[in-house]
Amino acid sequence: MRGHAAFVLFLFALATSVTSAAPARLVYRIDHATARIEHNRLVIAASGAVSTGGWEKPRLRLHEVPAAQGETLEVEFVATPPRHRAAVVQAVLPVHAKFAARLPRAGVIQVKIVSQTNAVTVPVAQLSSR
After folding, report:
1. Which of these, 78, 46, 42, lies nearest to 61 by C-alpha position?
2. What is the DSSP string of 34-86?
3. What are the residue boundaries of the structural domains of the chain, listed by start?
4. C-alpha separations of 44 from 15, 67, 72, 74, 117 in Å
5. Each residue's pLDDT tens digit in the chain (130 positions)?
6. In whole angstroms, what is the distance from residue 65 CA to residue 81 CA?
């Protein structure tokens, strides 16, 4: 009986280790993006799609680019993919993400958002004061 209980615990531990969260991966595509300065913060927003259901936590992740590359700040549009062998909807589904960061280094005038199949480059817009 003890051997059976130990075997069941072993199988449970194996199953939970296999279903642990996968690292974030690039989303399938970007449909629209904006970048603007609001309240002394750079606010980047993107909408796009993932290739199946089950993706979680869409977000924009700043890609470290050497300062020498000048006027473009690069951001990756990522999400956590579904668990391996999970039953998911087989359809392209929309995702959205927004990211607020400190102001970029001097000289940055545009933001490039990267996905699996495309990249979108948008100018950094100044919010008009009223």
Report:
1. 78
2. EEEEETTEEEEEEEEEESSS--EEEEEEE----GGGTTEEEEEEEEEPPPTT-
3. 22-126
4. 38, 19, 13, 11, 19
5. 555 555 544 554 545 444 446 799 999 999 999 999 999 999 999 999 999 999 999 999 998 766 556 799 999 999 999 998 899 999 999 999 999 999 887 888 999 999 999 999 999 997 655 5
6. 25
